[in-house]
Design brief:
Layout lengths: L2 H21 L6 H6 L6 H12 L2 H13 L6 H24 L5 H8 L2 H33 L6 H47 L8 H9 L11 H17 L4 H8 L4 H18 L1 H13 L1 H10 L4 H9 L2 H35 L10 H28 L4 H8 L1 H6 L1 H9 L5 H21 L7 H19 L2
Helix pairs in contact: 1-8, 1-16, 3-8, 3-12, 3-16, 4-13, 4-18, 5-10, 5-11, 5-12, 6-7, 7-8, 7-16, 7-17, 7-18, 7-21, 8-13, 8-16, 8-17, 11-12, 13-14, 16-17, 20-22, 21-22
């Protein structure tokens, strides 16, 4: 075990906690906790959008999928994920910002009614279980690699979850904003420097040889086979993330924390665009490992492709590069985990639990503590789900892909129709949710591998429900 490397990683974790706890001093009420007082400047919003999405699946999951399959295997992320951010910035951020909402669930209450708000808020919160668990699982993997298996991945999951919980619990969105800005700096500078080091290796010799080798190996095959079943599956994978990620509290929360609507729009668009292009860096690093050490890569591909990049860095790069890489890796994971842990907790406390509490006793201070309690409970659920996923050998990329099925099936259409179709109403929203969820769940049981994926069947049924319900009743 490299104690120097481990010592620097522990120091980085302590600094992150310190920044998060400092941010907690800025939290005076629920709006500070949830939206950082709607006061964040452009550079900080860009940092949050970029770093929140640039998570474990981007550094470990996407490159592993690229090695196992090809570029087409990454259609959901980064292609679909980037689309979601850009769409949200261009078509949703300005309208929602002007409504002065605290959560996305508030929109569904204002535009439709209380039942729609509750059902969609619960669906949004549930979608985060896989998303946050993917980050925590990656933290467990990092601790396992760093300690040469002295810390098991299960123990690493619990340690990582505890660290993220600690600074998110108290600082909320202020903690997310301040720690993310520091973490994004580490991510960009660290990974670019490591890419330069790897490119200077004689086996790699720059970017062009890696691209050429990957091209000759068929890794840049993107489009599906020339048949309708493959094409529909391909498009469904793209839209599951591309549309399903739009009605999400974390994306809304970042835009809503902006100091004005212009920052909300362009901070999200620029952050999403930066995410798409920078996602190529981990792919480049991981594929370079196949040129530098083919034997190691082949062994790890048979075991777990997600281990290729962290193992390559640890065994082939100097100590300083290892420190920078693992600092950057922890940065991307913790920035994503903290933001996506806060989002569902806020949604549940504000849009579900709050309405069942005695309103005359519900001061801002008490509501803030209720939100923090939900953060704690949701963290425990994340750890339990992560340990189950570890046993069932579910990959990080799969966990992220699965996260947005429920919101595609029941939340995207009510959001779009509520903003852009004046005739949409409560009946349409209700029927959209019922038909979308029914079609998705039914297909998951009877035909999970069908040419038309279950969540896409739910998406179509949701659109049909909104159209019929809104036209049948005024």
């Amino acid at each position: 075990m490299n104690h120097t490397l481990l010592g620097f990683v522990i120091l980085y974790l302590v600094v992150s906690i310190g920044i998060g706890m400092y941010a907690a001093t800025k939290v005076k009420n629920t709006e500070d906790y949830v939206a950082a007082g709607r006061s964040l400047p452009m550079f900080m919003v860009i940092a949050m959008v970029f770093a929140t999405w640039f998570g474990a699946e981007t550094v470990l999951g996407i490159p592993a999928t690229f090695l196992d399959e090809n570029l087409g295997g990454t259609i959901s992320d980064p292609f679909g994920a980037s689309l979601a951010l850009i769409l949200f910035g261009l078509f949703f951020a300005r309208k929602l910002y002007r409504m002065n909402l605290l959560t996305l669930g508030d929109f569904f209450r204002k535009r439709y009614n209380r039942p729609v708000e509750v059902v969609i808020s619960i669906a949004i919160a549930l979608s985060y279980l896989g998303w946050v668990s993917a980050q925590v699982t990656a933290l467990g993997l990092v601790f396992n690699v760093l300690s040469d298996s002295a810390i098991s991945q299960a123990e690493g999951i619990m340690i990582g979850a505890a660290v993220v919980l600690l600074y998110t619990l108290y600082g909320g969105m202020w903690s997310v904003a301040l720690t993310t800005f520091v973490q994004m700096t580490v991510i960009v500078i660290g990974l670019l420097w490591i890419a330069k080091l790897v490119g200077a290796m004689p086996e790699v010799n720059g970017i062009a040889p890696v691209v050429e080798h990957a091209y000759n190996a068929g890794k840049f095959e993107f489009w599906p086979e020339a048949n309708w079943a493959a094409f529909i599956t391909f498009i469904a994978g793209f839209l599951t993330m591309g549309f399903g990620s739009v009605p999400q509290q974390d994306v809304f929360q970042r835009a809503n924390s902006s100091r004005n609507e212009t920052v909300a729009v362009w901070g999200t668009v620029i952050g999403g665009t930066a995410y798409f292009f920078f996602a190529a860096v981990p792919i480049y690093l991981t594929y370079s490992a196949t040129l530098v050490d083919p034997a190691m890569t082949s062994t790890l591909l048979a075991e777990d492709a997600q281990l290729v990049l962290p193992t390559f860095v640890k065994t082939h790069l100097p100590l300083m590069a290892q420190i920078i890489f693992y600092g950057a890796l922890l940065s991307v994971i913790m920035s994503t985990a903290s933001g996506t842990l806060l989002a569902p907790s806020v949604t549940l406390s504000e849009n579900v639990i709050k309405e069942f509490m005695p309103q005359h006793r519900m001061s801002q201070k008490k509501l803030l503590w209720v939100t923090r309690a939900v953060v704690l409970v949701f963290s425990l659920l994340v750890v339990a789900y992560s340990l189950w996923a570890l046993q069932s050998e579910t990959s990080i990329h799969q966990m992220v892909e699965n996260a947005y099925k429920v919101t595609l099936a029941c939340a995207f259409i009510p959001l779009v129709a509520g903003l852009y179709w004046k005739r949409s109403n409560n009946a349409g929203a209700g029927l959209s949710i019922v038909l979308g969820l029914a079609a998705w769940i039914t297909m998951e049981f009877i035909a999970p591998e069908a040419a038309l994926p279950p969540q896409f069947a739910g998406f179509i049924a949701s659109a049909l429900g909104m159209f019929l319900g809104s036209l049948m009743r005024k």
